[in-house]
Amino acid sequence: MFRNYLTIALRNIVGNPLFSAINIVGLAIGLACCVVISVFVNYELSYDKHWKDADRVYRVTRDFFSNDLRLVRIAPPIGPLLAEDFDEIEDMTRALQAIGMSLSRGDVSLFEENMVVADENLFEFFDLEFVAGDRETALAVPTNIVLSERAAHRYFGSEDPLGQTLSIMGQIDATVTGIFRDLPDNTHMAFEVVGSIQMVPVMMGPDALQSWGSNNYFTYLRLPPGYDPADLESRFESFLIKHRGENAPGGTALGLQALTDIHLTSNRDAEWRPNGSLAVVYTFSAVAFVVLLIACVNFMNLTTARSTQRAREVGIRKVVGATRGQVTAQFLGESILLTAIAMLLAVAIVELSLPAFAAFLEKPLTFSLADPTTLLILLAGTLVVGLFAGSYPAFFLSQFRPVEVLKGVAAGSGSGLLRRGLVVFQFATSIALLIATGVVMAQMHYAKTMDLGFSKERNLIHALPFFADLWETYEPLRVELEQHPDIQSVVYSSRVPSMQNLDGSGYIAEGQQLTGETSIGLSDIKVDAHWFEHYEVEFLAGRPFRANEMRIAAPTEENPVVKGWTVLNESAARRFGWSAEEAVGKVVREPMNRALTLFIDREVVGVIPDIHFSSLHDEKKATLYAEPNPRYARYVSVRIAPGDPAAAVEHFETVWQRLVPNEPLNWFFLDDSFDGRYRAEARQAKMFAMFSAFAVFVATLGLFGLASFTTERRTKEIGIRKVMGASVRDIVWLLTSDFTKLVLFANLIAWPVAWYFMSRWLTRFAYQAPFAEWAWLFVAAGFAALAAAWLTIATQAGRAATSRPVLALRYE
Amino acid sequence: MIEMHDLTKTYRTSNVETTALDGINLEIAAGEFIAVMGPSGCGKSTLLNVMGMLDTPTDGRYRFLDSVVSGKSERELADVRKAHIGFIFQSFNLIDELSVRENVELPLLYQKSAGSERRRRVDEVMERVGIAHRADHRPPQLSGGQQQRVAVARAVVSRPELILADEPTGNLDSANGEEVLNLMSALNEEGTTIVMVTHDQSHADHASRTVNMLDGRILSENVVSMATGSEARHVS
Fold first, then answer.
1. With contact defined as beta carbons under 8 Å apart, do B85 and B163 qualify?
2. How far A408 CA sits from the closest chain B CA (Å)?
3. Staple partner for B35: which of A85, A322, A440, B207, CB 3.0–4.6 Å?
4. 3-state DSSP call for residue A566?
5. What is the pTM assigned to this prediction?
6. Contact A4 B98 (CB under 8 A)
């Protein structure tokens, strides 16, 4: 019996090439989308699960209320104090990203992007595997350094690095005491070079590790098995009061994040590197599922549409003794067989496309049939999809009554209403996906082209050396660079646009007492006198800094209040209750010590508009601009004249290498960096576009099949109508009007759904493309779907309409 | 074998009620060859469908092989069909995607008979109807006469006690039609009960009894005495 089913199934597949091809190709695309996305989702879910005791490791976070900072890094004393105060903390470790460090060995000097200094127990805490050296003592000495295999290769090639020396910033000679296996890619952390945290006091002063203001240390805790982290969190407030006084909880709070949740759910300030997003995982899972669903709908529609072809067979089988169950089983078997063929094709598609997809996502995604779990999932998937796609046709076909179908009474070609519903569903989802793609792209375009409030073009950016006195490096560099005809201006600042600016502190308006309420949290950016001119920032009121306002004396016991100057942005002025004009001439007081005895009184010399400093995800922050301060990491911005930048860049490199020989070149162009802020979105937009294209393609494929069957079924009718005098246009309209109505109806469903989801998506951006800029997409997507449907049907209808009627009538 | 008492079948659409069978009383003994005649739409095919349990009567009693048919489930009816009844249709109703052999084999598959037994019986019956040489062809490759012989082979392969034939010669030329009738006569002589709907008096002459129908009723039954060739007419 099984052979009989198989025979008839295979002959049906071969005997109806159009039907089979549409179903197999559609299902294969749907299945391939699902497999690829599952591989991606599975990978996203695997982050940080591989670490030792991953389920009970937590990261400590710190929030600052006054300037809305939600940090994943905390001050260095907090970790040890927590471990001291709370017995349930089994273990604690800290790591500080040492940004802007250069390491050199002989002539080789590299800018090290992935260096951290960490507690001695970091390796044991996460159970990192050592390939050389002793894990327990590797960081026992402050000048020891441990490298990943990749970093070791970078500096030492095939030599044995153990016991060798690397110079950090040309100042500290560090001894390599261990080599660890490279971190896997599926972790939220990123480091390749690990120095001892004890280097911090050496480099930054003896009290550096006691500072509560330096919130730069990733801090991880291990809690006992089964312990509820909320228990610990609830006692953080009293911890802050104990160590920072009664007022501390009003300004700041500590929290815990489960290690394994960080990648997909943490979207805080100052992460190791951009994390993934649960929303993206959900979205792409849903979209892949939709493509598969559309393919399943094709199968249902086409199978029931051509049911007249199978009706007689069902009748005969029942006459010779088949039960309804047997007929159902037969058709389910057929759909499973078809799905299995599609799955084979899908696996081939996945094998071919996954490397490109992985490269596109920059993730090491792999797919192997040798893995029994994968194989099992594919088999189960085939079964589930086959049963689902076949369920309705099997139910529908098996209910045919032999008397009727054998007598030739039209068995009906399936519930017309349901099939129309399914076509509407297919097109509604396709249209919604098209709109979604369009909105994502419109927002990208908006972000890239909107007026940021400053000019980002032709700006070469380089970090200045970390240790040297700012003026020693900067001034001669500026003078030499500006001599080149292609270099228009050179300025200095603590941050450059496109970076997240997390620097900030509390200020008060002159004449007020500093309390929790009067303190106004502002971001601050240190700039030199020409910065506003360089970035072409307009002034709402007042003027830019003057050169003599750039160097001010530090307040002392003898002279506790010194005079300074500042430029505010509009939001900052408003925070003090001033309009732009009112603000000019007012004084803002900046406390300089915890005891609140030393101040700088800054006179507001100018007010600028809020400029989009980082990405459109972030709101423009209330910001105070002030003179340079050598304590901060610093950047030089070089504006190059329009035209080919090569000569200017070359000049920059030559001058840099001469004036700052120990510092490797590491420049970038500002607009590239800005584009980089939207890379995740740009990638999502591309993926969206791809999936929408698949969805539309599969839906159109189905419509093509459906139209061809409808046309075939109505061949006789068309013949008669033509004999009666119908024109080609009449016939084409006869056949297309029905589907046209369905596609139009699909628009009515797709529009509100797309609007709902996309306006929610846009809320992720502080600055959103206005509705007017993407409203046309709704109409465009509708027309695109209609055009696809028309083209598909019209080719069929045209062929039927132009054939000689006698051929159609001879059909009977 | 078959007892029908006051059997009625009506079809109802939203505003029209059609009576296809109107108080049918009919008994058929095992081994009979019955021809059912009458004009188009008189209820011949409906009678055959009800007899073959492809359709259920609206009213009345139907006993088949001494058991009451009404009230049996779809599944039980399918079991009775596959065990006892073979069908032959005017339009052959072969499955185009299956070969001659596979078409003939179909009833045995649903009866779950063993593979070797199945092959033996299929070969035997194909030989008998003279279609063995086309065993691996598909129905569309055969002539009408050949197709109907395949249908006959399929109907008899499971050795049913009853064969229901709905105008088996209707689509055939006279030579082929005669051949099919001879096949059926031979089966009848071996003891198979046959009920055949036909339009053609000469074909009805092969039967031992003719049932004439009009407007859903049985008008008359002619019994042909095979020995004398004379007719006895009962008017009901």
1. yes
2. 10
3. B207
4. strand
5. 0.79
6. yes
